[in-house]
Amino acid sequence: xxxxxxxxxxxxIEAFAQEKQPLALSEMARLLEMPMSSCLGLLRTLEERGxxxxxxxxxGYYPTSRLLAMAQVIAAHDPVLDRxxxxxxxxxxxxxxxxMFGKLRDGGQAVYLEVVDAPQSIRYTIGVGExxxxxxNSLGRxxxxxxxxxxxxxxxxxxxxxxxxxSTLTTAAxxxxxxERSAGRGWYGNLGESVPDLAGIAWPVHIGGQxxxxxxxxxxxxVEPRIEEIAAMLRAACRSIEDPHRAAATPPPPPRKx
Length: 258
Prior knowledge:
With 258 residues, the protein is an alpha+beta fold. The chain is 47% helix and 20% strand.
């Protein structure tokens, strides 16, 4: 019961984010498909804790800034993101495509822990906390590469390898061959395997003994012609994250002679 109640609280927060307006009790109960009495109890509790307020009598509830303030404090002290964010921003500015950072979680899913959007109006977008099947995702493949063959098989058992596009690999054997090729060429890719016009490349990075990955994604017509150039910048960014002191001490290359 406690787990279900906790889930409902997050559903309330997500409902406000989706609707972007005050919500009356009846509207919230309808959106969450729950009894009005139970919904009222949750809303009143959040109001008493200072997370919601009534915009007017019978006009609905809306979140206060307390939730934002607490989220900002938590984010400011994230030991992993604090380390990687500068490198992600620098990489985004260099490649001018969306840069993502994530981790593998149960169920064969890659979860996005940070997203730095590209400056272009046409770009790949995804929300922090969203997940994608690891088998057809560049970030997920980079993460799968860090597992032993046995652990990888166990991970893939939890998900069905369905065909998302005509290019999707749908067998464990084909995926294993692709991971081996990817390690040799220096990037793990998703070239139209999840979305036909999307290209993504990724590379693993280890922090504190844990495996993460950094990926870059954008329209295929922009990414594929530059894929080796982008991959080189990606690997350099991952090296700087893993060993920032060595990266800072490495002198820049000499200027080219004209």
